Automatic annotation (TrEMBL):
<dbReference type="GO" id="GO:0006548">
    <property type="term" value="P:L-histidine catabolic process"/>
</dbReference>
<keyword id="KW-0963">Cytoplasm</keyword>
<dbReference type="InterPro" id="IPR008948">
    <property type="entry name" value="L-Aspartase-like"/>
</dbReference>
<dbReference type="GO" id="GO:0004397">
    <property type="term" value="F:histidine ammonia-lyase activity"/>
</dbReference>
<comment type="similarity">
    <text>Belongs to the PAL/histidase family.</text>
</comment>
<feature type="cross-link" description="5-imidazolinone (Ala-Gly)">
    <location>
        <begin position="142"/>
        <end position="144"/>
    </location>
</feature>
<dbReference type="GO" id="GO:0005737">
    <property type="term" value="C:cytoplasm"/>
</dbReference>
<dbReference type="InterPro" id="IPR005921">
    <property type="entry name" value="HutH"/>
</dbReference>
<keyword id="KW-0456">Lyase</keyword>
<dbReference type="Pfam" id="PF00221">
    <property type="entry name" value="Lyase_aromatic"/>
</dbReference>
<keyword id="KW-0369">Histidine metabolism</keyword>
<feature type="modified residue" description="2,3-didehydroalanine (Ser)">
    <location>
        <position position="143"/>
    </location>
</feature>
<dbReference type="InterPro" id="IPR001106">
    <property type="entry name" value="Aromatic_Lyase"/>
</dbReference>
<dbReference type="InterPro" id="IPR024083">
    <property type="entry name" value="Fumarase/histidase_N"/>
</dbReference>
<dbReference type="InterPro" id="IPR022313">
    <property type="entry name" value="Phe/His_NH3-lyase_AS"/>
</dbReference>
<comment type="pathway">
    <text>Amino-acid degradation; L-histidine degradation into L-glutamate; N-formimidoyl-L-glutamate from L-histidine: step 1/3.</text>
</comment>
<protein>
    <recommendedName>
        <fullName>Histidine ammonia-lyase</fullName>
        <ecNumber>4.3.1.3</ecNumber>
    </recommendedName>
</protein>
Length: 511
């Protein structure tokens, strides 16, 4: 099993991607000393009795209420139970694992005041596949992702449900089966565990990784569509893009050139092409896709920083003092999620126009209507294009920025919130829709390429063509198409389509 050692403060995006794909994280043992020192600072506060928020006071609007030392453990347990207010479907296991890994990384910085044994329980639950059932809704992205993280923490104290080795069961039962003991939360530990941006960040990271995968696939399908439409590769000339200077645009153009290299279809009309310019959906692929790639990379840098951050409150500072702040406010994550949503929307919008181009005989330069071999008797890919338009429009509706939709909560104590969790969670259906659009483009593009026979596309695109055709046979006459669309979508979502071309052609997430 692949393992990742988390070094809080220097965790890389690639390591987070590996955890999302199934690697098991553990904390760098070098963190133990800092974690223990912060826990000792909290214990000194409890012993001394000076009022410090969240240690011996109430929470939020109740911060002025003093809590006696003998009730500190009850305070933390009550905090968790009262905050388990999540609703909706459980989050997927890969996202729950990422949430726990991010919480592990944050606590490992040694500024949260939790004991080493509490951190160790999170590690052990990940190692033993004991994953809390966390409802998807309930966070507004400030004061931490309180409700969902409370469900995570509830499992640690033996309350609520978990999924253990694939089976849902009560948390206490699962911990016992895994040879683990529930933790009794000490001072500040409950607050440290539920204060933080880990749910919003994990969802945003999942959206980022999925969006980047589909963006790479879209370069392949875009190149196939260019050949199917007998489009020109001249707009992909490197100097055009170097003159503008945007890294994503330069990288996208380079990928398109490499994908189209050696195409007989392209070579057949290099001279004497009567069209002066192709439509924007063909010609401006590097400019649009490249700008989207730049947005994804920018969001990736923000989320990498957040993954290394301490985002609970109050914090144990280097001098041992404990100070309240606002690192739990997830505004950076909300902005990153909105950027990712815009990129997802635009990748799908321009791909949908390429699909429309290929099925329209007035625009497709000699291809039959709807790519049907006997149009009229057969409708071909007419409604596949309509489905792509439906998916595109739904993504447009979801692309409105979530970060501007603050609402006051907790008796106006928390009067401005980020909505990061909303913004990040909507990336999952948006990337699913985008994969559907790109899957449909894969089907229309290879159908168009086939109709250019005996001319063939280039070596790299022939590999992609073969992968698509292994899942979706050529359309000779009308047939039940829903399964074909599902297969095309799966090629994109699984990474099989991007894996079909040579390594090094498609742009990486880290420029």
């Amino acid at each position: 099993m692949n393992r990742i050692v988390l070094r809080p403060g220097s965790i890389r995006l690639s390591e987070l991607a590996a955890i999302y794909e199934g690697a098991t994280p553990s904390l760098d043992p070098a963190c133990a000393e800092r974690v223990a020192a912060a826990a000792a600072a909290v214990e000194r506060i409890v012993t001394k009795g000076d009022p410090v928020y969240g240690i011996n006071t109430g929470f939020g609007k109740l911060a002025s209420v003093r809590i006696p030392a003998e009730d500190v453990e009850t305070l933390q347990r009550n905090l968790i139970l009262s905050h388990c207010c999540g609703v909706g479907d459980p989050l997927p296991r890969e996202i729950v694992r990422l949430i726990m890994a991010l919480k592990l990384a944050s606590l490992g910085r040694g500024a949260s005041g939790v004991r080493p044994q509490t951190v160790a329980l999170i590690e052990a639950m990940l190692a033993n596949d004991v994953l809390p059932v966390i409802p998807e809704k309930g966070s507004v992205g400030a004061s931490g992702d309180l409700a969902p993280l409370a469900h995570m923490t509830a499992a640690m104290i033996g309350v609520g449900d978990v999924v253990y080795t694939g089976v849902r069961m009560p948390a206490g039962e699962a911990l016992a089966k895994a040879g683990l003991k529930p933790v009794v939360l000490a001072a500040k530990e409950g607050l440290a565990l539920i204060n933080g941006t880990q749910v919003s960040t994990a969802l945003a990271l999942a959206g980022l990784f999925r969006a980047h995968r589909v963006a790479r696939a879209a370069l392949i399908t875009g190149a196939l569509s260019t050949d199917a439409a007998m489009g020109s590769s001249a707009p992909f000339h490197p100097e055009i893009h170097e003159l503008r200077g945007h890294r994503g645009q330069i990288d996208s153009a380079a990928a398109l050139r490499a994908l189209l290299k050696g195409s007989e279809i392209r070579d057949s009309h290099l001279d004497g092409d009567e069209r002066v310019q192709d439509p924007y959906c063909i010609r401006c692929q590097p400019q649009v896709g490249g700008a989207c790639l730049d947005l994804l990379r920018m969001a990736g840098r923000t989320l990498e920083t957040e993954a290394n951050a301490v985002t609970d409150n109050p914090l144990v500072l280097a001098d041992g003092s404990i100070v309240s702040g606002g690192n739990f406010h997830a505004e950076p994550v909300a902005f990153a999620a909105d950027q990712i949503a815009l990129a997802i929307c635009e990748i799908g919008a321009i791909a949908q126009r390429r699909i429309s181009l290929l099925v329209d005989p007035a625009l497709s330069f000699g291809l039959p209507a709807f790519l049907a071999k006997m149009p009229g008797l057969n409708s071909g890919l007419m409604i596949a294009e309509v489905t792509s338009a439906a998916l595109m429009s739904e993504n447009k509706q979801m692309a409105h920025p979530a970060s501007v939709d603050s609402t006051p909560t907790s008796a106006n104590q928390e009067d401005h919130v980020s909505m990061a969790c909303h913004g990040a969670r909507r990336l999952l259906p948006m990337t699913a829709n985008l994969a559907g659009i790109i899957g449909i483009e894969a089907i229309t593009a290879v159908q168009g390429v086939d109709l250019r026979a005996p001319l063939k596309t280039g070596t790299e695109l022939l590999r992609a063509h073969a992968v698509i055709r292994s899942a979706v046979p050529a359309l000779e006459v009308d047939r039940y198409l829903a399964d074909d669309l599902a297969a095309g979508t799966e090629l994109v979502m699984s990474g099989a389509l991007e894996a079909s071309v040579s390594e090094g052609i498609l742009p990486e997430l880290s420029a």
